[in-house]
Amino acid sequence: MAVPDPSSDLIQRAAVVRRAAMALGQSTDAQRQLAVVAMADALEAARESILEANRADLDAAALEGLTPALVARLKLDAAKLDAAIAGVRQVAALADPLGRRQLHTELDQGLTLERITVPLGVVGVIFEARPDAVMQIASLAIRSGNGALLKGGREASASCAAILEALRGGLAASVVSAGCLELLTSREESLGLLKLDGLVDLIIPRGSNELVRFIQDNTRIPVLGHADGICHLYVDQAADLPQALAVALDSKIQYPAACNAIETLLVHQAVAADFLALAIPAFGQAGVELRGDAAAQALGVENPATEADWGTEYSDLILAVKVVADLEGALGHIRSHGSRHTDAICTTDQATADRFLAAVDSAGVYLNCSTRFADGFRYGFGAEVGISTQTLPPRGPVGLEGLVTYRYRLRGDGHVAGDYASGARCFSHRSLPL
Amino acid sequence: MAVPDPSSDLIQRAAVVRRAAMALGQSTDAQRQLAVVAMADALEAARESILEANRADLDAAALEGLTPALVARLKLDAAKLDAAIAGVRQVAALADPLGRRQLHTELDQGLTLERITVPLGVVGVIFEARPDAVMQIASLAIRSGNGALLKGGREASASCAAILEALRGGLAASVVSAGCLELLTSREESLGLLKLDGLVDLIIPRGSNELVRFIQDNTRIPVLGHADGICHLYVDQAADLPQALAVALDSKIQYPAACNAIETLLVHQAVAADFLALAIPAFGQAGVELRGDAAAQALGVENPATEADWGTEYSDLILAVKVVADLEGALGHIRSHGSRHTDAICTTDQATADRFLAAVDSAGVYLNCSTRFADGFRYGFGAEVGISTQTLPPRGPVGLEGLVTYRYRLRGDGHVAGDYASGARCFSHRSLPL
Question: Looking at the partner chain, which of B368, B413, B417 has a beta carbon nearest the beta carbon of A411?
Answer without folding.
Answer: B368
